[in-house]
Amino acid sequence: MTQFKPTIQPVAKRVRNFQEISIGFPKKSMVDEGIRCPQCHNSPCAHACPLGIDIPGFIRLIREGDSAGALSKIREANDLPAICGRVCMAPCEKSCIFSEHKQSIAIRALERYASDHGRPRFASKKTITRTGKKVAVIGSGPAGLVAAAQLAKAGFKVTVHEMMPLLGGALRYGIPEFRLPKNVLDAEIEEIRSLGVEFKTNFAVGQSMKFEQFVGEGYSAVLLTVGKNSLSLLDLPGADLGGVYYAKEILLTVNTRFEDQYKKNPAPVIGPKVAVIGHSNAALDCARTCLRLGRDVTLIFSETIEDLKVYPDDVEFAREEGLKFEALTKPLNILAASPSSNLAAGVQCVRMDFADVNGKWDLKPVPSSEFVVEAQTVILAAGFKTSMKPLAFGADLKTREDGSLWIDPETSLTSVPHLYAAGDAVVATSSVVDAMASGKKAAQAIIKAVR
Amino acid sequence: MFKITNKQILARNVKRLDIKAPLIASRVKPGQFVMIIVREGGEWLPMAVAEAEPMRGQITFIFQESNAITVELGAMTIGEDIFSIIGPLGKPATIDKSGVIVCLATGVGTAQILPICKALKKAGNKVVGIIGAKSKNTLTLEPQMRISCSRLIIATEDGTYERRGLASEMLKEILSTEIVRHVYAVGSVEMMQSVCQMTQDRGIKTHVLLQPAMACGMGFCGSCRVRVEGKVVLACVEGPLFDGHHVNFEHYKTRLATYGMSQSRMGEQDQQDEMTKSITKFFPGLLGK
After folding, report:
1. Which residues of B touch A213 (CB under 8 A)?
2. Chain B stretch 209-268, residues whose beta carbon is closer than 8 A to a beta carbon of chain A
3. Structural domain count, chain B
4. Model confidence pLDDT, tens digit, residues B141-181
5. Residues A255-282, buried b or exposed e (16+ Cβ, 10 A)?
6. Is the Cβ–Cβ distance between B171 and B101 less than 8 Å?
7. Distance between CA atoms of B95 and A339, rounded to whole angstroms?
8. Interchain CB distance below 8 Å, B42 and A257
9. CA distance linking residue B3 with residue B21, whole number of Å
10. Which of A412, A434, B145, B180 sits 20 to 30 Å CA-CA off A25?
11. With contact defined as beta carbons under 8 Å apart, do A374 and A348 qualify?
12. Range of the domain at B46
């Protein structure tokens, strides 16, 4: 039996809307997919999951047709199943014993099915014993939400401070509607709100809010989940020309504005030909956003297609939508339309190839293989970093070399007492599930320390 | 949601809004700004806080209707809600007692310089304010500036009110008569550039307030990059106040022009130079598809 393929929107239709690509999961195919699982007794998938979800356990329940039971099984370890079921990088599927033949069990799809169909019809009564202690969480991204849910379940009074007008952090402002619908995110946040978590939006912990003020307001612990909040600027020649944007600018505007208004007037202005430079999810999301605006898009990256840091299905979807891939290509500089002009007209690139460099297999530029990708708009999906500069928290925090926060690996505590950190601000990889796992770990450390 | 408590039309296209925002009012410092979204699903707009009253929990915006978002904001009435105000953002100005300080502003730049003037005067400095305007009816915030400056000079280009001339010419006069320690300049790029040239050889520290296009205001979109001391920095995090002698104004002009913004966005509206004209010619072609 082959891997389950979900029903998806036809290409001609989906390049014109921002709705989610997969339109549904028939129950029968999901049960069949569950039956395909061999239920290995050492369960490599459960060990690969950073959150430690009992994957064979919930697949067993789906197999029996009990999606509600499967959801409650997932919720034991994961507080955002509907989100993980859509945007997780799925390390479990890579470790599946069928993965060698690219036929691994569609665990992500099964999780999504359970979270969409297993939702209880009526509100369930939750009994939580309150401890009377207060904890502040700064940032409502994946790590912050998971930590808030865990702390609330343990009886703490949690207040989440979010700078943006709406909750979700990177989940809302970093992932477009076609990968993670906003109503799914809202439903998950409502679930966490029902645990008694208080949310404060439009609350910028900016230059004038000191950490001591939080302690003064009676918070026993403060958890920083600020994520990769800053931009590491590229030193690509011509990066200051008009029409050159960083990925976050595109993602922020497409996620803030309404779809119909954005389609009519995409600000910042996007030209008819677009080049996206990068290999991450952010790059692919920008490229697919521009495809939905009817633009001609090329993705430039210096790895092979297999090395892209995205879920394999997304590459397939993007190719169907008409994205052009320039693999093993290194951008050299961005060209201006004319010497006096300040607008971009193309990207000069050079082909790369594997070569033997001092006995090591490495990428080397191919001689005289330079070419120009024509583009009026160039999007740089550069690396993001954590910076305390926009926060200026009044606390002298120890950081690592790359700017991320230093924490004690055991207790998640930063160099300042009572100040914890989790999420992308401390984790090197920027994947949703790793951030959630670190948020969960920090929450457990706080529960242990404060109680 | 932030309620509008008062609205006033100050001059042609210049409006003043009082908004209930207790948290921002108690925390904002001179030189900082906020990001606003007028309605849900709208665009972001950086906005200077002209006045903040922590006791009443109220902040004041003074702005010129120069593009679609500011027109939408200007059309709002008392009692309506602004969707989101995020702030305070940016680095505050360093306020200490140093002597005679000149604060220069043109157009709606007056709204940005007003809190700085107030704070400097409170710290015990002699503040000389200079406001430049095109004519009498585009002049804003004159009474507030009179209170917050020790001496105020008003320069109108057509001579309809007080002195005739440019604001930078008035600065030249003061530099020859008084020992000036600091100069703060807000307004059009040309004005800031000429002020910096004037103060450079005298060795007077000059602070300029840059207003590049901003999409987020929190340092992750990178639209507000400016070149200072040979390095590319983000104006929303490191600024918006910079040492004027280190700012690369040519780079700043290019960045403003690439976003199709008028160079004197906060100054007079109808000032357009060739670079801006060329971009407006270019944009319809871009939008054609």
Report:
1. none
2. 215-216, 218-223, 225, 227, 232, 234, 236-238, 251, 254-255, 257-260
3. 1
4. 888 888 888 889 898 888 888 788 888 888 888 888 888 88
5. bbbeeeebbeebbbbbbbbbbbbbbbbb
6. no
7. 43
8. yes
9. 8
10. A434
11. no
12. 2-89
Which domains are seen in chain A, by residue range?
7-117 (1.10.1060.10), 134-229+384-450 (3.50.50.60), 233-380 (3.50.50.60)
Question: Is residue B143 situated within a structural domain?
Answer: no
State the sign of the Cα–Cα–Cα–Cα dihedral A18, A21, A27, A31: negative
3-state secondary structure of A300: strand
Range 5-64 of B in CB contact (< 8 A) with A: 23, 27-29, 32, 37, 40-44
CB contact under 8 A, B222 and A249: yes
CATH number of the domain where residue B28 is located: 2.40.30.10
Question: Which residues in chain A have Cβ-Cβ distances shorter than 8 Å to B37?
Answer: 165, 256
pTM: 0.88
pLDDT surpassing 80 at residue A211: no
Strand order in the sheet with B84-89: B44-48, B33-37, B84-89
Q: Which of A165, A233, A272 sits opposite B232 (nearest CB)?
A: A233
B65, B30 in Cβ contact below 8 A? no
Of A228, A256, A343, the CB nearest to B282: A343
- The rounded distance, in Å, linking the Cα atoms of B230 and B50 is 31
Kindly state whether residue B230 falls inside one of the protein's structural domains. no
Structure ipTM:
0.83
Secondary structure class of B91 (helix, strand, coil): coil
